[in-house]
Write a structure and sequence with these properties.
Layout lengths: L9 H10 L3 H12 L6 H4 L2 E5 L7 E5 L1 H9 L7 H15 L5 H6 L3 H14 L11
Antiparallel strand pairs: 1-2
Helix pairs in contact: 1-2, 2-5, 2-7, 4-5, 5-7
Length: 134
């Protein structure tokens, strides 16, 4: 996977680079990045990192969405109801993991619903205007 984005350091940059070019994956990753999940050690254990085989330099990261949701279901990834909703929506956008939209959308605050709308548009190929390739 390659990206037209400038090289960005850190886990968020690696997650973005790993998702680059796949709209649904980009959208889901931006959703978890923007809601702070990458700052939680209990979440980042589901993120694997490596180096691009094409250039040997670019850091890439992949989120194991199924393991995240399984861990959440087992009570091993504690979170608020709003965080849980966002996480489930992101996993559904990224990996097709089923989510009950009635439950997931009904309790989101204005900021969260704005992020979800943006992610939905992004997954449909409408990247945010501030992103290269939009």
């Amino acid at each position: 996977m390659t990206s037209s984005h400038p090289m960005e350091s850190g886990l968020a940059g690696a997650v973005r680079a790993g998702a680059a070019g796949l709209y649904s994956l980009e959208a889901a990753c931006e959703l978890v990045i923007s809601t702070g999940w990458l700052h939680r050690d209990d979440f980042t254990r589901f993120v694997s990192t490596g180096t691009s085989v094409t250039d040997g330099v670019t850091e890439l990261a992949h989120i194991d969405w199924q393991s995240v949701i399984s861990s959440c279901d087992a009570g091993l990834l504690p979170c608020s109801s709003g965080e849980n909703r966002i996480l489930r929506l992101a996993a559904s956008i990224a990996a097709g993991i089923p989510v009950d939209l009635h439950d997931a959308l009904s309790g989101l605050d204005q900021a969260s619903i704005s992020l979800v709308v943006g992610a939905t548009r992004h997954a449909n190929g409408q990247r945010p205007a501030d992103q290269p390739g939009s």
